[in-house]
Design a protein that fits this description.
2 domains, mainly alpha, 90 residues, 4 helices
Length: 90
């Protein structure tokens, strides 16, 4: 929950408070924070003693968490496009 609050505060600051002329600096700051987050996650995973034993189950779980939302999103966009945009093409 803390992460969600921090993310919402970051969006609010970036959208409302951060000056428009510093947009490029904001983009670099966001990229740096994202890279730091990914690096930190890798360090935390690397510190596990049973990392290689857990890797197979983590990989399968991650694949399932990727596959199901992706497939459902593709199906939703396909059917909604077919229903609402078909009349506009003709």
């Amino acid at each position: 929950m803390d992460i969600l609050i921090i993310m919402c505060l970051g969006i609010l600051v970036g959208n409302r408070i951060f000056p428009k002329e510093k947009k490029k600096l904001n983009e670099y700051l966001q990229l740096s924070c994202t890279l730091l987050l990914i690096f930190s996650m890798g360090v935390m995973l690397g510190q596990r003693d049973s990392f290689f034993e857990d890797l197979a189950s983590l990989g399968i779980t991650s694949f399932i968490f990727f596959l199901i939302p992706t497939a459902l999103s593709i199906l939703a966009v396909y059917f909604l496009t077919k229903r609402f945009l078909q009349n506009k093409k003709n």
